[in-house]
Design goal:
The complex is a heterodimer.
Chain A (H helix, E strand, L loop, with lengths): L1 H13 L5 H14 L1 E2 L5 E4 L2 H8 L5 E2 L8 E4 L13 E4 L2 H6 L3 E8 L2 E7 H6 L3 E2 L7 E2 L4
Parallel strand pairs in A: 2-3, 2-4, 4-5, 5-6, 7-9
Antiparallel strand pairs in A: 1-8, 6-7
Helix pairs in contact in A: 1-2, 2-3
Chain B lengths: L3 H56 L6 H9 L1 H12 L6 E9 L5 E6 L11 E2 L4 H9 L3 E8 L2 E11 L2 E11 L1 H46 L9 H7 L8 E8 L2 H8 L1 H18 L5 E6 L2 E7 L8 H13 L1 E4 L2 E4 L2 E6 L8 H17 L5 E4 L14 H9 L3 E10 L4 E12 L5 E2 L12 H18 L6 E5 L1 H4 L2 H13 L1 H4 L2 E6 L7 H13 L3 E7 L6 H7 L3 E4 L1 H4 L6 H16 L3 E4 L5 H9 L4 E2 L21
Parallel strand pairs in B: 12-13, 15-17, 17-18, 18-19, 19-20, 20-21, 21-22
Antiparallel strand pairs in B: 1-2, 1-6, 2-3, 4-5, 5-6, 7-9, 7-12, 8-9, 10-11, 14-15, 14-22, 15-16
The chains are: A alpha/beta, B alpha/beta.
């Protein structure tokens, strides 16, 4: 866990010489690496900038077609694919956690600071295993 | 000296550079101070606001622990009331004000958020990991966090909400960096100006350093002799004005018989000997001594002697011994060298360095004269003086340069015909007073020096000019090293080739001495002379290391019997026998014998009795500037 925090802070430190979007992508990649699902992680996002940035990472598999995606990173609820029964959703706004019940976690900026929230019950429902490094961010419910 | 300007420029730039760096840091520091003052001022204002909020929230509601605080704020109406109240303090610089609570898992959660934008929900988790949050709980004191590049946030102020000496929450205020940015923007052009100025000065300094470095490289080349890698005379000129001679003893060191090495083994061998010798001398002296190549095979040494009690003679003796004990090798040849050293122990007693060098040079001259391979000292109370009659190298050098060299000619008498067979050219110098100086006063000390070779060249030119259009024969004296000198050989060949008649009338008289070690080379030169029709005579035979076998090998035309044997022939039976034997040897060897130093009728008669073919001497005729005729012989 300490290692994760350290890594997160190192990542944050890198922000000094990095753009906001790159930092955001690095944190998202870290979170995605720390969870495991029962299928291959294929990412789709309605935020094209994030998609483009993630494409550069050889370890992350992205797709332009949401139908093929197993993980959706959602910025806007209106963009939520209707035919996405099997995919798991990670949102980029805390409020979306309430609005999209299928979402299991969120990454967002709160008062200039990066924040992560992962909802414990939804992890269980969606059969997602999160590594212990994510423990500090696990919440029982959305407040 | 030349580069004083550059060094001054460098120092000026350095000072200027330091000054501008100071100004730059001063501006940065001032900037920092302004921020700190602003920060303190802001914090002071905020602290009062937060204190009031704390009073309203905790004291007025009699909250005694965090559970009560959570319970009180769980009520939405209460939250709205406080958030409305706190929101009054939101300004363009105070961006967020919120109340945090640390739960049992050490996670911070929002209890109140009066922010007008980016508002958090009640009990929402807030990921903050700065150590100052923990410090608030530990110290119960407010903390401030200077934010770096965090969405316009400049400062976060953390105010503890306390009850019963326990922190139950943290009132957090985020202050924006707008003013700071404005100040930074205002100062940035000035800052940029100083940075450019510093870079510019740094570049100038770098250029000056490169120039100075280049100067020292060039200076080293100028002051270093490329062959020996020791200082040269340029260096002496450079240091002379500031050289304190009181701290030095001065010596002139000269390699003995160096010219022979050059002539016999070539200049490359000479160069190798010079380089090695300088190494040996360098290894024999100390770091603070100054060794330089004064010219040719001559070195100058300034031995440091701060303490006048120092015995420097040990060092000079060590140099002499180290050179003489070293076996120099060049290709497959092994050579032994010696040095003569002339020392002026108190050079400061002279008018200047040049005068001191002259004295040391005279001591060197005496060392050479006294047999070489020795050290001769000049001390204030020294009785060592130069022979007043003898003339030094400078005298001859000056005479050559001023064209004061001339030849006298002494007839060599042919006994069988009673006529002059040929003339021997004898060198004379006219001194500055017009007096004729005989060779005995200057010739012995010229041996093996460049001056001797120059003098020989001058004599050749005088004699050739005089006898070119005449029908008389002439003998020219030359030593072995002159004979093997390439320059002299070229002169002889060119003259003989252009005037065969002159060649057939010239005899080269070579001194028979220990220097004729290389018989093969001598023989080769004799053959060369013979090929042009010139003849060769062995001079002073019987005086040196007469080696009959070598003389036979050389195949000379004449054998001149040494005067020291001839002069006593009338009174000394042994000399008589020797001379008689030499004449017999010459006849048997197909050489003609010449007896010199015929100074009396008794000697003349004795020589006639033993059948010598040619004679010369004061009894027959004294040397004269003009060519005497046969009828002028035997006159007093």
């Amino acid at each position: 866990m300490r290692a994760f925090l350290l890594a997160l802070f190192c990542t944050l430190s890198l922000a000094a010489s990095d753009t906001s979007i790159n930092l955001q992508v690095k944190i998202l990649e870290k979170i995605l690496n720390e969870i495991s699902i029962n299928k291959e992680k294929i990412i789709w996002s309605d935020n094209k900038t994030i998609c483009q940035a993630m494409k550069k990472n050889k370890h992350i598999h992205t797709t332009p077609d949401h139908k093929q995606a197993t993980i959706v990173i959602l910025q806007d609820k209106n963009n939520l694919p209707k035919k996405c029964a099997d995919c798991i959703i990670f949102v980029l706004d805390y409020e979306l956690l309430s609005k999209v019940p299928k979402s299991f976690g969120a990454f967002f900026w709160k008062k200039g600071r990066p924040n992560i929230v992962i909802i414990k019950s939804r992890l269980k429902t969606l059969s997602i295993q999160a590594s212990s490094d994510l423990d500090p961010y696990i919440e029982e419910k959305v407040w | 000296m030349v580069k004083a300007k550059e060094i001054f420029l460098f120092l000026m730039l350095f000072i200027l550079g330091v000054f501008f760096i100071y100004i730059y840091y001063y501006i940065k520091q001032t900037q920092e101070d302004i921020f700190i003052k602003m920060q303190n001022n802001k914090i002071e204002n905020v602290r009062h606001i937060l204190k009031n909020i704390e009073d309203t929230l905790v004291t007025k509601n009699s909250i005694t622990n965090k559970e009560e605080l959570i319970s009180h704020l769980s009520n939405k109406q209460n939250r709205d009331k406080y958030e409305e109240m706190v929101a009054i303090f939101i300004t363009p610089t105070i961006k967020y004000i919120y109340l945090l609570y640390k739960d049992s898992d050490d996670r911070f959660r929002f209890l109140l958020d009066a922010s007008k934008e980016d508002k958090a929900n009640f009990y929402q988790k807030f990921d903050v990991f700065n150590k100052e949050y923990a410090l608030v709980y530990e110290t119960l004191e407010p903390q401030s966090i200077k934010q770096k590049k965090m969405q316009n946030l400049y400062l976060t102020y953390l105010y503890p909400i306390k009850t019963s000496n326990e922190v139950i929450g943290i009132l957090s205020v985020d202050i924006t960096s707008d003013i700071q940015s404005e100040i930074l923007n205002l100062l940035r052009p000035l800052e940029t100006f100083f940075v450019i100025l510093i870079i510019f000065i740094f570049l100038l300094m770098l250029m000056t350093i490169v120039q100075v470095f280049h100067y020292f490289i060039t200076r080293k080349k100028i002051f270093t002799d490329p062959l020996t890698q020791i200082y040269n005379r340029n260096y002496l000129q450079e240091i002379a004005p500031r050289l304190n001679l009181n701290h030095y003893s001065l010596a002139m060191i000269d390699l003995d018989y160096f010219k022979v090495v050059n002539d016999v083994y070539g200049h490359k061998a000479g160069d190798a000997i010079l380089a090695k010798s300088s190494l040996i001398i360098k290894s024999s002296i100390r770091d603070n001594d100054i060794l330089l190549r004064y010219g040719g095979e001559e070195f100058m040494l300034l031995l440091y002697n701060r303490d006048s009690k120092d015995d420097l003679s040990e060092i000079y003796e060590r140099i002499r011994k180290n050179i003489s004990s070293h076996i120099f090798t060049y290709e497959k040849n092994k050579l032994e060298m010696q040095v003569s050293i002339g020392v002026h122990e108190y050079p400061a007693s002279e008018k200047n360095l040049n005068e001191a060098i002259k004295v040391a040079d005279k001591m060197l001259y005496i060392a050479k004269k006294e047999g070489r391979n020795r050290v001769i000292y000049h001390r204030d109370n020294s009785k060592v003086t130069q022979d007043s009659k003898s003339k030094d190298l400078y005298f001859v050098k000056q005479a050559i340069e001023e064209d004061r060299v001339l030849c006298y000619y002494q007839p060599i008498y042919e006994c069988s015909t009673g006529k002059i067979f040929k003339y021997e050219a004898l060198v004379r110098i006219i001194d500055t007073d017009g007096k004729i100086i005989s060779p005995a006063q200057f010739l012995p000390d010229l041996k093996h020096t460049n001056i001797h070779y120059k003098l020989t060249k001058r004599i050749l030119s005088i004699v050739f000019l005089k006898f070119k259009d005449s029908s008389e024969n002439v003998s020219i004296n030359m030593n072995f090293t002159d004979l093997i000198n390439k320059d002299i050989e070229t002169t002889l060949i060119e003259t003989f080739a252009s005037s065969p008649s002159l060649a057939s009338r010239v005899t080269i008289e070579v001194l028979e001495s220990d220097e004729i070690q290389n018989t093969a080379l001598f023989k080769e030169k004799v053959k060369l002379l013979h090929s042009y029709g010139a003849t060769v005579s062995i001079d002073d035979f019987g005086s040196g290391y007469s080696n009959f076998k070598s003389i036979l090998d050389i195949e000379a035309d004449f054998l001149k019997i040494d005067g020291s044997l001839v002069k006593n022939i009338a009174t000394n039976e042994k000399d008589f026998k020797v001379v008689k034997s030499i004449i017999a040897f010459a006849k048997d060897s197909n050489m003609k014998a010449i007896a010199e130093f015929v100074h009396s009728s008794e000697v003349y008669d004795k020589l006639s009795e033993i059948g010598v073919e040619y004679m010369q001497g004061y009894y027959i005729a004294k040397p004269c500037q003009r060519l005497l005729q046969s009828n002028e012989l035997f006159e007093e």
